[in-house]
Predict the structure of DUF2526 family protein.
Amino acid sequence: MAHLEDVIARVDAAITENVIEHMNELLIVLSDDTDLSREERYEQQQRLRNAIAQKGHHHKAEVEQRREDLTKGGTII
């Protein structure tokens, strides 16, 4: 159980850090982790996938808002 707790802590840290590259790297590491059951591995990978998806949606919204803020009357300022 200690290994699972360590993995959960690493996933929590990656999600808190909110860097997609690091979350993707951890996804790969978890894919090869034979010390976890299939269900445990899937659960932690899903947490990472959800965080990546949310960050992607948030980033897209920020880009759209920035473009809207910079555009006045159809011209980029």
